[in-house]
Amino acid sequence: MINSASRIASALVVASLLLTACSGSDGEGAAPPAEHPVFSLPVDEQPYQTMRVTQQSGSAAFHQTLTFTAKQGDAVLTTAGRLDFSGGRADGTHTWTIPHGLPATTKDILQGATWGEGSASARVALTPESVLHRSGEGDYWLRYDPDRLIDETDSISRFHGMESPFGGTLLEVITALHRIKGQPVTGGGRRFTAHIVPRSATESLLPGDLHRRMRAVGPAESAGTPVPLTLTTDAKGLITQVEADLSALLKGGDGGLPGVTALRVRLVLTGHGRTTPALPPGSDVVLDADKAVLPRYSAAAGDCVDFSTGTRRAALVVKVSCTGPHDARIYAQVKLKGAYTGERDAKRRAMEACGSAYRSARSAWTSDSVDPGEYWGVWPKEEHWDSPRERVATCYVLSR
Fold it and tell me: 3-state class of 154 per DSSP?
């Protein structure tokens, strides 16, 4: 049995302990709150730092859609893959979805000029030393050396990004935002709204030919052109989603992209620090683009070629063995005479030359056609007409 005196003594001991715990000056012995690597900075600096923190995570998986809206529907370029920031490596796929009825001119502008139908998909692998490209129909990789790029291959060099191993994504514009505002989101992250510099938007996100085409239409580079962007991060400050609306750059209704009325980009990042790019295995066939890719007028009669070089240029082809699958076989290179008098006349003269050459070509070359009796031709543009080596009609049959 505990008597009342014992209870009083116990109470005094407890009170003494409480007083001891509360004694001392305010904050004595307490650790200062830790500064957040991103959110402790001024808001104007936070998006820049989100890029740095994301890079420091080492790696990430990405999925980006570039959506061109037309009345026929959305033409969408989907790019997805894996990034190794620390090693400067990446892999990814490019896939085009084209709505039925989209004008052929618009389709060619978006996908890039090429002979035949072109490829709706491609695989890309990147190292600091090379760009490897493989078309969806190809059974080999083309290895491009960025230090020895052949003419007109800016769409190859852009695969190497400045902020990311894989170029052409919204990660390229994060460090140059302005008019920045931020607010917390559920889970402890942040959502920032900002504007992109118009030139950076098209130059960083679009292939060179599309970028130049949009610039030529109107003053899209004006500082007053609103190019809004939304950036979302997780609680660590790692980038998880970026969206931008480039529709305001479609001056004159389509910005040089016939029928296109809106242009939007959305990027999602996942798997920070837990992602490894898949580079081509050693068993895959790899061709040196410096030797295999050549101007179409340099190919000889009898050569077999593929159309997909990854360069978005019809002026270039891949020379391949005729014993394996190939897109076409060239049966003649015919020099065109006279002055340039317009696109329609150049086409007429080229096709007449190819028709005459077809009738005298080696049967082994023309019988390679998947459509017996049918032949095709490519002719030089006006700017190439004054070059004797380029002023030729390249005549070929489709082989697959």
Answer: helix
Structure tokens at 144: 């491009």
Query: Contact at 8 Å (CB) between 196 and 180?
Result: no
User: What pLDDT does residue 348 have?
Assistant: 96
**Edge-to-edge strand list for the sheet holding 304-306:** 293-295, 316-320, 304-306, 328-335, 392-398, 376-378
One domain, residues 237 and 310: no
Whether residues 123 and 245 fall in one domain: yes
What's the burial of 76, exposed, middle or buried (CB within 10 Å: 0-12/13-18/19+)? middle
What is the domain count for the chain?
A: 2
pLDDT of residue 297: 92
- DSSP H stretches of helix in the chain: 4-22, 46-56, 104-111, 154-157, 198-205, 208-217, 289-292, 343-360, 363-366
Whether residue 140 is found in the same domain as residue 218: yes
CB 376 within 8 A of CB 331: no
CB atoms inside a 10 Å sphere around CB 17: 10
Residues in the chain: 400
Beta strands in the chain (DSSP E): 59-70, 73-84, 89-97, 121-127, 130-135, 141-144, 177-184, 190-196, 228-233, 239-245, 260-270, 286-288, 293-295, 304-306, 316-320, 328-335, 376-378, 392-398
List, as one string, the DSSP characters of 39-69. Answer: TTS-GGGHHHHHHHHHHHT-EEEEEEEEEEE
| Least confident among 46-60, 89-103, 141-155 | 141-155
User: Is residue 18 assigned to a domain?
Assistant: no
**Domain range enclosing 372:** 291-398
3-state secondary structure of 285: coil
Angle formed at CA 92 by CA 282 and CA 153, multiple of 5 degrees: 90
CATH number for the domain harbouring residue 253: 2.50.20.20
Helix (H, G, I), strand (E, B) or coil at 156: helix
How far is it, in rounded angstroms, from Cα 220 to Cα 256?
A: 11
Full-model pTM: 0.85
